[in-house]
Protein 1
Amino acid sequence: MRPLSVDILLLLAVLSELVCVLGILASATTIDRLHYSGATTAIAPFLILAAIVVEQGDHNPTWNAAFDAVALFTLNSILTHSLARVIRQRAHGDVEL
């Protein structure tokens, strides 16, 4: 039987994703939607990583989850920034490389 803390961490991960989805649906502009979509990889993967650490300890699934969480966080930040630059350039034509 798994600890209650694992269930709480997974519930928090799901709730954080739900808040992000509601933010995306309620956003008025594309930049606002990018802001909320970026938050999806900033919170939940690390909560899931914490749940895996509690459940598995220092075994291989923990290291896989750690790599996945860091990769999601890093790559989504880069992608969100790149998309925001393209959106601004198309809207205003004032972004230079």
Protein 2
Amino acid sequence: MSDTSVSSPAGCERQKPHTWIDPKTGLEWQCESPGEMSWYEAQEYARSLSLGGKNDWRLPTAAELESLLDRKTLFDKIRPDMREEVPFRDALSYWSSTTFGDHTRNAWIVMFDGAYVLSYYKTNLYHVRFVRG
């Protein structure tokens, strides 16, 4: 796994175990990404993850990842950025839990560098960030 995650993002430092509750959706997000892994490895990792005594972490859906984008900037820019209040803003690509329809070997990723939503083989390596709620 690669170590390109942002360490102790602002807004996450105040809370232990470094989680952030999105006021827009009520979802609780893991602040620090554990790095890159395959979709399958991410599913296994989520089953073993425990933060703050909570063990119901999972990969977010594609829609949940997209909820981190600021759609209001669509009028000013071609592609939206992450919302300002998201403490772990970056431009990396993240796995979602959402499988690509009938093509069950693929799942959707959200590329925050440009706000693209694309499907790739589940064996590819992308960043992960887990969510609960």
